[in-house]
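Here is the promised in-class demo. Please do not try to memorize the tokens; focus on the logic of going from shape to residues.
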């Protein structure tokens, strides 16, 4: 399966229970994200877990807009962020102190010392919502489980993995008791116990139907339609121009004098933008002339 392009998320449920799930597996969409920068392998893996996590969350949170996960801290890794919009476009970035040697094995808590996790819901039309989760566990999975416990008050379990080639995730959630079916009171404990036996190579190497069969061959699992995901960046020349104008006219004039133009790169996709004096003339007005 390693040579097959697969960028999919699929929802599933268990008959006669109030447990639902999601499984995501990405390869080239993930690789498109990590190839934009020379990441050490350990950061590729951690960023891959964030990519898988935002894909899972995006399919759970139904909004017409953008959902993001951002981790910030005081360790050598200052920021790690992933986003997904309503069209299943994924993007992500990690920023770290490149003067420091990155360990081969890292935990979220170590690299984001004293930090926090922010999950932001930004509808196209509507009010922005942000939930803050303290980074108290060693893994992103633990942080997300804490987030769901605080925000939705629904028991949830998350399993994430990445290896630089693929990233994947598995999500289980127990719905409110009124949605439970009679006759299977132990379903949550049993299903999460079975999911806890999943191996990284299974999470990253098996198609969803095969993975669920291995974990739940004695359960009645209902699979729903597959959704395709892909890398996609929301940057544009106009948005970048607006960001440049936020620098203010004095700094823009100084850059024009020094460089002859104002250059800006998208941190997510590495697209390069350049703005000439003529491009900025309307903003600078009579002060546009630099020579």
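The designed amino acids, position by position:
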């Amino acid at each position: 399966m390693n040579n097959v392009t697969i960028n999919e998320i699929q929802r599933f449920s268990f008959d006669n229970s109030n447990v639902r799930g999601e499984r995501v597996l990405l390869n080239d969409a993930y690789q498109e994200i990590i190839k934009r920068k020379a990441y050490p392998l350990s950061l590729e893996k951690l960023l891959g877990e964030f990519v898988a996590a935002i894909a899972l969350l995006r399919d759970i949170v139904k909004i017409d807009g953008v959902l993001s996960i951002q981790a910030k801290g005081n360790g050598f890794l200052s920021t790690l962020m992933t986003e997904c919009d309503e069209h299943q476009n994924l993007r992500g970035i990690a920023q770290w102190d490149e003067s420091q040697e990155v360990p081969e094995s890292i935990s979220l808590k170590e690299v984001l010392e004293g930090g926090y996790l922010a999950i932001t819901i930004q509808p196209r039309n509507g009010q922005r919502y942000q939930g803050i989760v303290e980074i108290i566990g060693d893994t992103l999975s633990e942080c997300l489980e804490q987030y769901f416990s605080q925000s939705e008050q629904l028991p949830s379990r998350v399993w994430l993995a990445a290896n630089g080639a693929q990233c994947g995730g598995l999500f289980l959630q127990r719905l409110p008791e009124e949605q439970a079916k009679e006759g299977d009171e132990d379903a949550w404990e049993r299903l999460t116990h079975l999911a806890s036996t999943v191996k990284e190579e299974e999470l990253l190497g098996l198609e969803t139907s095969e993975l669920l069969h291995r974990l739940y061959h004695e359960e009645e699992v209902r699979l729903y339609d597959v959704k395709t995901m892909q890398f996609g960046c929301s940057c544009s020349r106009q948005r970048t121009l607006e960001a440049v104008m936020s620098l203010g006219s004095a700094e823009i004039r100084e850059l024009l004098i020094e460089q002859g133009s104002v250059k800006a790169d998208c941190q997510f996709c590495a697209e390069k933008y350049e703005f000439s004096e003529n491009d900025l003339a309307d903003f600078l007005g009579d002060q546009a002339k630099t020579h």
